[in-house]
Design a protein that fits this description.
single chain; four-stranded antiparallel sheet; alpha+beta; globular; 3 domains; TorD-like
């Protein structure tokens, strides 16, 4: 863990910026690579635009957002653990008491820029983290006093702050907490000419430690991890389907075939209560804080969660608190894929075959198990294991390839909408929505009220998975159905997966990750890869005609 970075983040949230700190902020740059990718881009843009004349606006924003000055209490982000972990959401609760006791017992000298901060303020907790020595102590403190509330706090800051700098600062803090940087081994630091160290982008080879184990040794570690994490992975259910469920042993994980379902339902439940109501009031139903979640999954599924993060956390400027409350608890243990992936995959074409977004990477073979530990919070669980030089391998070539369409190069998109081949799906697609159910990046839902059977004035509103491939999904209050036929439904889904999402979120990736589950699930044997490739060929024809006319 980089302590100067910890001090820097602490200062940002401790009090308003002064001229000296403003100059330091303007000089700080972060690498625009994992785990800082979006956070680094946003920070660098905000910091580069700062002028001394912005100090007043930043001061006003600080007292509004962090002190609640002039605002209703619900429209502020109070930077105290007690506010986010106590039933009533107020200061000086159990978290405050625990931090006071921890500070008293440790005897550590914790210096913060503002002396009137209470012990469970984010700045005090960050300074305490920086004062600890050793990855085990840092990781344990981060798990108990940072990961349980800071991601939700950051979401509130991004929601309520009016200045780009404080929104960007919240993104940095969240990346710091969620990436494992607070756990003791993260090698990314501030990249600035005035700070102590320079930053290098974090790739899979940076930081961490690798060990070699026997199967029985890994099972013993698994049992220890189960005490601290709820662990999920692809395992057979009672009907023989491979889906992500809670595991009792590592040996339950199925690796010789692609899972039938994705891990999406763990952090985005099929049915989720949003609030409960009666004739007088309503109460939000955010999931209660629980154990962190560790999911064993392949690279495509780890990449898929970033797509959902964009949809639920960064789409339209409002983060979805219900998604975030579960998402903030999730870490991934990456499972290596077979050499060329699974038979139906095209992940290499989609760029989702590689990832460094894992806490652990695991390769199990006949000669034992190799583990890469990238998250410092997990290092203590592997103490005593034989070190190795293992680095995870990734699929470099699939048996299937996607030809991605250049839809944006067509000057009149209506021509893409009117392509004749869409009509073919009216004869084939039965609009069952099965492809959406197994897709790790599909996010559509509907809301419904469920009334109490004994009191119709009492009930709850739930968010329930829905399917863009079902005509009723587009029915509006007046009865109009926007996409009533399979051709329009398939066109919407295909363009969303390989055009719309890419355009909206910076052009770095497509929504489809090439896992191939939709193909296996379809009862009519519709192959989505064939749809994408055919769309590519039709778009290339349109581009050729366009160029000929020019």
């Amino acid at each position: 863990m980089n302590k100067s970075l910890c001090h820097f983040l602490s200062r940002l949230f401790s009090k308003e910026l002064d001229r000296e700190t403003l100059e330091r902020v303007k000089a700080v740059r972060f690498p625009e690579a994992a785990p800082w990718l979006d956070a680094g881009v946003n920070w660098n843009r905000a910091a580069a635009a700062l002028e001394e004349s912005d100090l007043e606006a930043l001061a006003v924003d600080y007292v509004r957002v962090f002190l609640g000055a002039g605002l209703a209490e619900a429209a502020a982000a109070f930077p105290y653990e007690s506010v986010y972990t106590s039933p009533k959401g107020i200061i000086m609760q159990d978290a405050w008491s625990r931090m006071r006791e921890k500070l008293r017992e440790s005897g550590l000298e914790i210096a913060v820029p503002s002396a009137d901060l209470m012990e469970d303020h984010i700045s005090v907790e960050l300074e305490y983290l920086a004062a600890l020595d050793g990855a085990a102590e840092q990781g344990e403190f981060a798990r108990l006093h940072l990961q349980n509330w800071v991601p939700r706090f950051c979401i509130d800051v991004e929601k309520y702050a009016e200045t780009e700098l404080y929104r960007a600062a919240a993104g940095l803090l969240r990346a710091f907490i969620e990436s494992g940087a607070a756990g003791g081994t993260e090698t990314v630091t501030e990249q600035t000419a005035t700070e102590e160290t320079k930053a290098e982008p974090r790739h899979a080879s940076a930081g961490g430690k690798s060990v070699s184990m026997t199967g029985s040794e890994l099972e013993a570690v698994f049992q220890k991890l189960s005490g601290a994490y709820d662990i999920y992975g692809p395992a057979q259910d009672e009907k023989g389907a491979v889906r992500f469920r809670k595991l009792d042993r590592f040996s339950e994980i199925v690796t010789d075939r692609q899972s039938d379902f994705s891990p999406k339902e763990i952090y985005y439940p099929i049915s989720q209560t949003l609030f409960r109501f009666d004739e007088n009031n309503y109460t939000a139903a955010l999931p209660e804080s629980g154990k962190p979640i560790l999911i064993f999954a392949h690279p495509c599924d780890i990449n898929a969660i970033r797509r959902l993060d964009n949809i639920f956390l960064k789409n339209g400027g409002q983060a979805d608190l219900f998604y975030a409350s579960l998402r903030s608890r999730v870490k991934f243990a990456m499972l290596e894929c077979p050499e060329n992936g699974y038979p139906g995959c095209w992940c290499v074409s989609m760029g989702s075959n590689r990832t460094d977004g894992y806490a652990l990477a695991v390769c199990a073979g006949a000669e034992g198990v190799q583990v890469r530990i990238a998250d410092g919070m997990l290092l203590p669980f592997f103490s005593g294991a034989e070190e190795s030089d293992y680095m995870p391998a990734f699929v470099e070539k699939n048996g299937r390839e996607a030809r991605l369409p250049r839809v944006g190069a067509v000057k009149q998109l209506q021509k893409v909408f009117d392509l004749a081949f869409w009509k073919d799906y009216n004869e084939r697609c039965i609009s069952c929505g099965g492809c959406n159910t197994v897709c790790p990046t599909c996010s559509c839902y509907e809301t419904a009220d469920y009334l109490d059977q004994e009191n119709s004035r009492r009930g709850e509103r739930r968010r329930v998975w829905a399917s863009c491939m079902i005509p009723e999904f587009t029915r509006t209050a007046g009865g109009h159905v926007a996409r009533p036929t399979p051709d329009k439904l398939m066109r919407f889904k295909a363009l969303h997966k390989v055009f719309d999402y890419n355009t909206r979120f910076g052009g770095r990736e497509h929504m489809c990750v090439g896992c191939g589950r939709c193909v296996l699930r379809c009862p009519e044997d519709i192959d989505f890869l064939d749809t994408v490739n055919r769309l590519h060929d039709e778009v290339e024809r349109l581009i050729s005609e366009q160029e000929a006319e020019a």
